[in-house]
Amino acid sequence: MDVAIIQKIITQLGSAQHPVILTHLRPDGDAYGSLLGLGHTLRERGAQPQLYVEGGMIPMYRFLPGSDLVQNLPSSLPENTDCLIGLDTSTRERLGQKTTSWTRPIDIVIDHHVSNLGYGTLNLIVSEIPATAGVLFQIFEIAGWKITPAAATCLYTGISTDTGSFRYRGTNAKTLQAAAKLVELGADPSEIAKQCYLSITHERHALKRLVASTLSLKDNKKSAFLTILPDFYKKSGANGEDTEGIIEEVISIQGVEVGSLFEFTQDGGLRVSLRSKGNVDVNAIASSFGGGGHKAAAGVRFAKDAEKNHDLVLAAISKALAS
Ligand code: AMP
Ligand code: MN
Ligand code: MN
């Protein structure tokens, strides 16, 4: 972690009265946990932060304290904004279509995606820390800022979900120390686990079953992939956010080194999620198509040529497995 950058970030965050905090589209637990964790901490310090994300809050993460503070992205930035912050978002575009017309630069980027090239004025990208919520925790510790039970719950949720409940490579002693500290500060591990992992809706479960039936294996069963077709949503009653976590079904199979999920969208596009057990760098594969992420979890989106790109990604996986 770059100490000089952290100090600059602490100074700017600490003096902002009307900060605006953003995170990535199709938000996950780390996106919401980081957004709210920073929001609570800056509020505690007397600021009036605005928390925006495309689509607002999704039902699954409504249990997070202060979730009603999260608003849908507005078409223009509030005029009194004195600090614009992007969290857990690897590229400028992933902050959302509506933000592209905003003229203010992103003042501060805090992230952990290895593919993040730094699109902010100040960039703190720590790929050794497995969640942006963990990067924020370190910043708050260095700054000596109070972490309330609400903030601790949000930050713990970010770390727990991005590490697959402390299972993925990248989880180390420091991760567990941060989690332990957050529990001391008020996060409840079993309640958070219940909300994140033991509360899937019947619609989401129905979608999971439909998707599981599409399982295909190739490359000596080292590559496994799933498909989502547009009519799966109507059949199951689920919606877009319910795809989160489905890919874990394939990477959890013994011997599978790369798991992928191909979602064919209504508009002819293709959304690809990639997971690796760690021997294959899926960020390299996603990046070669214009996407990104981490070594073991990455993604890419294609606006068109869904079938062709589906085959190209599978070929790239085969090539990576053969090398
Ligand atoms: P997902 O498979 O959607 O859970 O994404 C896995 C990881 O890859 C996350 O850390 C995402 O931030 C990143 N990622 C997913 N899609 C993209 C994309 N189109 N461009 C860049 N990064 C992505
Ligand atoms: Mn995320
Ligand atoms: Mn993250």
- Give helix % range: 25-40%
Number of strands: 12
Main beta sheet, described?
6 strands, parallel
The side-by-side strand order for the widest beta sheet comes to 3-2-1-4-5-6
Please give a structural write-up.
By secondary structure, the protein is α/β, with parallel strands linked by helices. The chain folds into two domains: about 200 residues, Alpha-Beta Complex (inorganic pyrophosphatase (n-terminal core)), CATH 3.90.1640; about 120 residues, Diaminopimelate Epimerase, Chain A, domain 1 (Roll), CATH 3.10.310. Helix content is about 35%, strand content about 15%. It has a six-stranded parallel beta sheet, covered by helices on one side. A six-stranded mixed beta sheet has the order 7-8-9-10-12-11. The longest helix has 17 residues. The model has no long low-confidence stretch (mean pLDDT about 95). The site of one manganese (II) ion (MN) has 6 residues, from loops. One manganese (II) ion binds next to helix 2.
Structural topology:
Blueprint: H1 3-15, E1 19-23, H2 29-44, E2 50-53, E3 70-72, E4 83-87, E5 108-111, E6 122-125, H3 132-143, H4 149-162, H5 173-184, H6 189-197, H7 202-212, E7 216-218, E8 223-228, H8 231-236, H9 248-251, E9 258-264, E10 270-276, H10 282-288, E11 292-293, E12 297-302, H11 306-322
Helix pairs in contact: 2-3, 2-4, 3-4, 4-5, 4-6
Adenosine monophosphate binds at residues 24, 90-91, 113, 273, 291-294, 297-301.
